[in-house]
Write a structure and sequence with these properties.
The complex is a heterodimer.
Chain A: H1 8-37, E1 39-43, H2 45-51, E2 59-65, E3 71-72, E4 77-83, E5 88-94, E6 106-113, E7 119-125, H3 135-143, H4 151-157
Parallel strand pairs in A: 1-2, 5-7
Antiparallel strand pairs in A: 2-4, 2-6, 3-4, 4-5, 6-7
Chain B: H1 2-30, H2 33-62, H3 69-74, H4 81-87, H5 92-113, H6 119-143, H7 167-196, H8 201-232, H9 243-268, H10 272-295, H11 308-332, H12 347-379, E1 383-385, H13 387-404, H14 418-424, H15 426-442, H16 448-472, H17 479-488, H18 491-516, E2 518-524, E3 529-532, E4 535-546, E5 550-561, E6 564-569, E7 572-576, E8 582-585, E9 587-591, E10 594-604, E11 611-619, H19 622-640, H20 643-655
Antiparallel strand pairs in B: 2-11, 3-4, 4-5, 5-6, 5-7, 7-8, 9-10, 10-11
Helix pairs in contact in B: 1-2, 1-6, 2-5, 2-6, 4-7, 5-6, 5-7, 6-7, 6-11, 7-8, 7-10, 7-11, 8-9, 8-19, 8-20, 9-10, 9-12, 10-11, 12-13, 15-16, 16-18, 18-19
The chains are: A alpha+beta, B alpha+beta.
Chain lengths: 162, 662
């Protein structure tokens, strides 16, 4: 019994399907798996309080760097507090901070909470451009009513040149 | 005055682009050579007008005319000339003008040198290109005009972001936009072919040089961007899977697929519909990239010059252009004639598989890039999709593609000989496995993936060499015969070999650097030292130096290896006068292909002597990461120099009536 299609056109179509199907299956499988396991959620400190992510779970913590909270140790470690209007979290970071890291500025720390409740950051992001703050931070602050003015421009874009 | 002439030119350019569309379109409808020629004239006029507007903007930047709003926001009198020029495309408005310049420039070149094309196809393509130009010029004139005046000009400007004041980044946008916008020609040709209802080998032959130009420029642009990130952001990362990077990478992947599928359409007349689809997709992804980068809808570490309000307009432009293109495709594609048949083992099949894998890889990148948007629209949660996702999805698909790459060029058209190809690649495979095993034994037995990457890189390079030896019959035919074949190889073949080998060089560098980089960080007072890899670094001195628009602390760090001074690194930490922003200028000591990468961090005053945070990285084979893509782009350029020949052939073949059904 010959199951192969007879016309060359149909054969070519079958061949194409046979070539595409495994690749497609692989791509879809990997994508679904990746999107379930390799994404990290963004929290502000108060959202993190509510969600209670387990220690060690990779996430991003964003908010404003509390004024006066930055402690730089001589061994290169930096401690600071990321705060929103309601809650705050102590962050520990070993390394060089980005050039635009300042007190009172919006930052995003990537890392995980440790068992004692401090946030162990692997990476700290501030914007390249001093006129803007990380978008999630802006959105979260807006949602809390912390936002001054309409859109990023009014509050932050018009920082006067020093 | 010059600015006003520039503003006028910009509006004139919009009018010219509209005229280009109307005249060429009418010329096509009435089959009038006169009207079509007028359309071509309008295309050239549109380019000249945009160029005049761009020159006016450059003039305003160079002379620091702060009565122009864009100059006041992005320039400063203290800035060096190069960065005053680069400031012209460092802002949203300026970069959109650069986009229009490239768009009309490509249109003008197509209008001037399109003699090889059928008159009707050429008129349609010029009309479509004019339409694209009109849309983007209208956006520039009405929503994002870089030449607007300020009523109360400031005495001093706000300056360009210091991170952008860098030679690599100053020339990065022109290359990138040359690439992005080069896809517009391919898009116009595809739309024109759909309007004409005829996609044949001559059309594919016309698409290839444009796709190749755009692809090569995009490759250089992305490489410059990666290189900039590598040494300017100060921690040695060169690719972050950041949305802005992905925005440039998606059109690159599609263009790569297009280059390969267009070969099949050109040589064998097959895959015509698919090639048209890719041609439409490439420019759509370019526009998507412009939207993602400029609107700031996705959080990116590279987000410069973002304006959410205008993002909506860019999205509308994207929707309109892509909608028309793909709508036309849906309507007309069924009429495209299917090409020649081929066996499961053949060069056509290899190229189909290449396209399947590239498309799947592109899709995973698109999904990963857009998923945060989708998720936020669905449940309002802010998430980020980072490198783990892309490593998991993109890397295996690409690895599969790269394993198959050397086999493709060795297969014959129509019906290939799998065992023959396997025999010819036996030596290359042996070399690759040996390279992998040697890496495992000599460098580190614990990093199997890194060794696999090295083997893959070696496989690509050896496979390209094997293909070259096969074509020239080296070691099998007499020397004279080999030489005759060698010098007779078409430039296109050289280009392909070089591009595939360049890919291998990149894979070698990327895998080696990622797996075996060593990093060390310590706070040092003057005279103290730290070790990184085999190197012993001593902080000798810290000097205060003054730059044109910044003050800096410059460290002098001696690197010693086995008691021998190998280099003196001078990293800087700069504080810019305007805005007070700091940047780190890293020092890179080139050691063969490897880099010793030294960063001077901030000063910390505590008890005792002041200390500086010094970070050092040993990045083995890091040069290859940037050398590989440059080789690929060079391969593209060499292939392109074959172009005149190919266009000549295209003309002859297009005139021959028997050609179309291959």
């Amino acid at each position: 019994m010959n199951l192969r299609p007879k016309s060359p056109k149909a054969r070519r179509r079958l061949m194409l399907v046979l070539a595409i199907a495994p690749v497609l299956a692989l791509a879809v499988g990997l994508t679904l798996f990746g999107l379930r396991n390799s994404i990290s959620f963004f929290y502000t400190p108060s959202q993190a309080d509510a969600a209670r992510p387990p220690p060690g779970r990779a996430l991003q913590l964003g908010g404003l760097v509390a004024v006066g909270s930055v402690v730089k140790h001589p061994n290169g470690r930096v401690d600071f507090t990321i705060a929103d209007r309601i809650a705050s979290d102590r962050v520990r970071f070993q390394g060089d901070l980005p050039d635009l890291f300042r007190e009172g500025q919006g930052v995003v720390a990537i890392g995980a909470f440790s068992a004692d409740g401090t946030f162990q950051a692997k990476q700290v992001l501030a914007k390249h451009d001093e006129r803007y703050m990380p978008r999630e931070v802006a959105a979260a602050l807006k949602a809390q009513g912390e936002w001054r003015g309409d859109g990023a421009k009014a509050a932050y874009a018009k920082a006067p040149p020093r | 005055m010059i600015t006003e002439i520039g503003s006028f030119s910009l509006v004139l350019a919009l009018a010219m682009a509209l005229a280009q569309t109307l005249l060429s379109g009418l010329g096509r409808l009435r089959r009038s050579a006169l009207l079509a020629a007028a359309g071509q004239g309008a295309a050239i006029a549109a380019f000249v007008s945009v160029a005049a507007a761009f020159a006016a903007l450059l003039h305003a930047f160079v002379t620091s005319d702060f009565s122009v709003a864009n100059v006041a926001a992005n320039s400063h009198t203290e800035k060096p000339l190069l960065y005053r020029v680069a400031g012209a495309w460092g802002s949203h408005e300026g970069s959109m003008l650069l986009w229009c310049l490239a768009l009309t420039g490509y249109g003008a070149v197509m209008a001037m040198f399109g003699k090889g094309l059928r008159a009707s196809l050429r008129a349609s393509a010029v009309a479509v290109q004019g339409g694209l130009g009109a849309i983007f010029l209208a956006y520039t004139v009405f929503a994002s005009n870089p030449l607007l005046r300020l009523l109360n000009p400031p005495v001093e400007g706000r300056s360009l972001n210091p991170l952008l004041q860098d030679p690599a980044l100053a020339i990065h946008p022109p290359f990138l936009y040359g690439g992005y916008v080069g896809m517009s020609v391919v898009f116009s040709l595809a739309v024109a072919a759909l309007i004409e209802g005829r996609v044949d080998a001559a059309w594919a032959r016309w698409v290839r040089p444009w796709a190749l130009t755009a692809w090569s420029l995009l490759t250089v642009g992305i490489t410059l961007g990666a290189f900039w990130a590598y040494y300017e952001l100060g921690w040695g990362g060169w690719w972050f899977w950041d949305p802005v990077e992905n925005a440039s990478f998606m059109p690159w992947l599609v263009a790569t697929a297009l280059l390969h599928s267009a070969i099949v359409t050109e040589k064998r007349g097959a895959l015509a519909g698919w090639t048209v689809f890719l041609a439409l997709t490439a420019f759509t992804f370019s526009m998507l990239g412009a939207f993602l980068v400029r609107s700031g809808v996705l959080t990116s570490v590279h987000a410069f010059a973002v304006d959410p309000t205008r993002g909506v307009l860019l999205l509308a432009i994207l929707g309109l252009s892509a909608g028309v293109g793909f709508g036309l495709f849906a309507w007309r594609a069924p009429a495209i004639a299917p090409g020649g048949v081929f066996a499961p083992i053949s060069r056509e099949s290899a190229l189909v598989l290449n396209n399947v894998l590239l498309s799947a890889a592109t899709t995973t990148v698109v999904l990963g890039t857009l998923y945060p948007l989708i998720r936020e629209a669905m449940d309002g949660r802010a998430i980020s999709v980072g490198p783990p996702y892309f490593n998991l999805t993109f890397t295996p698909l690409m690895a599969a593609l790269l394993i198959l790459t050397p086999a493709g060029p060795l297969l014959a058209w129509k019906r290939g000989d799998a065992t023959g190809v396997a025999q010819r690649l036996g030596l290359a495979a042996g070399l690759a496995v040996a390279a992998g095993l040697a890496t495992l034994m000599l460098v580190s037995p614990r990093h199997a993936w890194g060794a696999a990457g090295v083997a893959l890189g070696a496989w690509l390079i050896a496979g390209s060499a094997a293909e070259l030896l096969e074509r020239t019959r080296a070691f099998r035919a007499p020397t004279a015969e080999v030489w005759r074949r060698f010098s007779g190889l078409p430039r296109g073949a050289w280009g392909m070999t070089l591009a595939h080998a360049g890919l291998g060089v990149f894979v070698l560098g990327a895998c080696f650097e990622t797996t075996w980089k060593v990093e060390a960080a310590e706070t040092l007072s003057v005279g103290r030292s730290l070790d990184v890899g085999a190197y012993h670094l001593t902080l000798e001195r810290i000097d205060q130096v003054a730059g044109p628009n910044f003050d800096a602390e410059r460290g002098t760090i001696r690197a010693v290896r086995q008691g021998e001074l190998v280099c003196t690194a001078r990293p800087e930490r700069r504080v810019f006068h305007t805005g007070g922003q700091t940047t780190s200028e890293v020092a890179i000591c080139q050691r063969g292909f490897s880099h010793l990468y030294v960063v001077l961090g901030e000063r910390r005053d505590g008890a005792g002597a002041p200390v500086w945070l010094v970070r050092a990285y040993w990045n083995p084979w890091a040069s290859l990461i940037f050398l590989g893509p440059l080789l690929m782009a060079l391969g593209g350029a060499i292939s392109l120099s074959d172009r005149r020949l190919r266009l000549g052939v295209a003309r002859r073949k297009a005139n021959a009536p028997t050609e179309t059904q291959a």
